[in-house]
Amino acid sequence: MPRFAPMVALTLAVVVSASACGRNGPEPELLGAVRQSVTCTGTGSPAVVMVHGIGDRANSGNLADAQRVLSDEHRTCRYDRPGTGQSPDPARTGRAADDLVSELAAVADHADPAAPVILVAHSFGGYPALLFADRHPERVAGMVLADTVDPGHGLLAALGVRTWKDVRQGREGLDLEAVEREVARTGSLGELPLVVLRRGKGVSEPWLKAQQDLAAKSSRSRLMVAGDSGHEVPGEDPEAVGDAVAALAGL
Q1: Alpha helices by DSSP H, 114-222
Q2: Over the stretch 14-69, which tens digit does the pLDDT of each residue have?
Q3: Which among 50, 104, 184, 232 has the fewest CB atoms less than 10 Å away?
């Protein structure tokens, strides 16, 4: 039996078409050598970079509601990793930690090349965020982990599957076993302001423990609860994401 109940929502992220982006804000732009689709709105510092989950239809569209909330106070950018949403497929398979870090770095530099950014990560998106914060701590002003996977407990258990081949990742071409191995090595975040925002519905004891373990990665952390939300916190309770980002200032 898996340690966590399967989180089907991890693999069912919302798809946003180009026309929908046009109604809700600026059209996304293709950024960098890997041509990632990036959508930025709002003004204000520190800038926020949002990282989406994983799945056959995973993309940054499920972060759009939370982005609208955050854009009232911050320049906020969300992006589709290669092979998701409106980004072209990656040039190769076997992509791992270095790729995820370089892709996130390009978006952080686009959001604000001169100052650290806040990372807001959902679900599997916590893996790229933790890797980036470990390798580029000077570029991170704070972090919100919204019902993300703790590497110590694992993506397989979170999804309720037995093998890495069973993880549905669309066309991302990631070596997920290697990615998780690298994330598990990241260790402490030191004094980085960190808010762990967990869902309020359908929380098992192992998942609660996983969220507590994530909060323990920083000496300046806070565990918050999106009381009326399931796993899809950014879409179901975007105001809670806004409150979590605001709480970073008090840590």
Answers
A1: 126-135, 155-159, 176-184, 205-215
A2: 233 333 333 445 668 777 667 899 999 999 999 999 999 999 989 999 999 999 99
A3: 184
Residue 27 CA: distances (Å) to CA of 16, 69, 130, 167: 11, 18, 28, 31
Q: Which of 202, 243, 201 has the alpha carbon at shortest distance from 223?
A: 243
Residue with tokens 């990615």: 179
Q: What domains can you pick out in the chain, each with its CATH number?
A: 8-250 (3.40.50.1820)
Cis peptide before 46 (omega within 30 of 0): yes
In eight-state DSSP terms, residue 76 is E
Please write the tens of the pLDDT for every residue from 160-187.
Answer: 999 999 999 999 999 999 999 999 999 8
Is-contact 138 113, C-beta < 8 A? no
pLDDT confidence of residue 32: 65
Q: Does the predicted model carry a pTM greater than 0.70?
A: yes
Whether residue 112 contacts residue 47, with contact meaning beta carbons closer than 8 Å, is answered with: yes
Using the CB atoms, write b or e for 52-80: b if 16+ within 10 Å.
bbbbeebbbbbbbbbbbbbbebbbbbbbb
Number of helices followed by number of strands (H, E) in the chain:
9, 8
| Cα-Cα-Cα-Cα dihedral sign, residues 106, 139, 170, 241 | negative
